[in-house]
Design goal:
alpha/beta, eight-stranded mixed beta sheet, four-stranded parallel beta sheet
Amino acid sequence: MKNILLIYTGGTIGMQKEGKDSLVPFNFDSILNAFPELKECDANVEHVSTKNAIDSSDMNTENWVEISKIIEKQYNQYDSFVILHGTDTMAYTASALSFMLEGLNKGVILTGSQIPIGARRTDAKENLITAIEIAASDKISEVCIYFEDKLFRGNRTVKVNSENFEAFESPHLPALAQVGVNIKYNTSLLRNKDTKQLCVSKNMNTDISLLKLFPGISEKIVKSIIENSETTVMESFGSGNSTSNKKFISILKEAIENGKIIVNCSQCLRGGVQQGKYENSSELQRIGVISAKDMTTETAITKLMYLRGRGLKNDEIKTQFKLSLRGEITV
């Protein structure tokens, strides 16, 4: 029988109705009584909560460190981990943990729900039970998100819907598993168990800005954002294009020459950055803007936090960023 640790961080999934309208936290001490189906998962499920259960919109790097420390402390006692998390920043947390948990050879499955666990039409029950079943399967050795019949690689996932149950997508990588009558794993995509020992990175550098381009964006705004951070993730048009305005290009060029790192992500949900495909992106490549290829914005940001947190020099950060460290880029 597998030992699974349930880590509750907050979010909709952990709430139930009390009275007519109010929502109160669910008591996970009675989880087996609430979900007798768990007894059929051939798993011993225990639970722990983070110090404070929070709305996932309040999630920050300190919370990620707290979660990673729980996993580190309990790593030898449990076979896999299921993290209950609010949906709004779940993709950020999954991406961050994928980098922070180096040498991971156990499953870390994040899940949540769109409707509270105690509501009549909740999606929490199926998400939680199946996440635990997948965690107990011993087939997963990476950070994933399970939601509405699909298991995704965590650092490939984005939230795309706040109203439907199918809240997440993995734009550039098929689901690792599809759940119907049976759970069908896409074994060719599953990551092999790491032969290294778990090493948890606890320093995440947040000196990173996000610059989303739009037609007519002010040069003053662009300069202000780039000058006030060491690293900027720039969301560009299409396959990595920006305005060819000389003042705009000169702002980027000067910043890079002064030691800033600028990364190019696409605003499009599907299709990665291909610098040099069009003339407008060729100039970005020439001045030293780094292509994020088909990384999600969530992954680009958290990967840079991780690399910056390791105290690497700029050249090494650029080299490491271009590599697929945890399966976050299509190679």
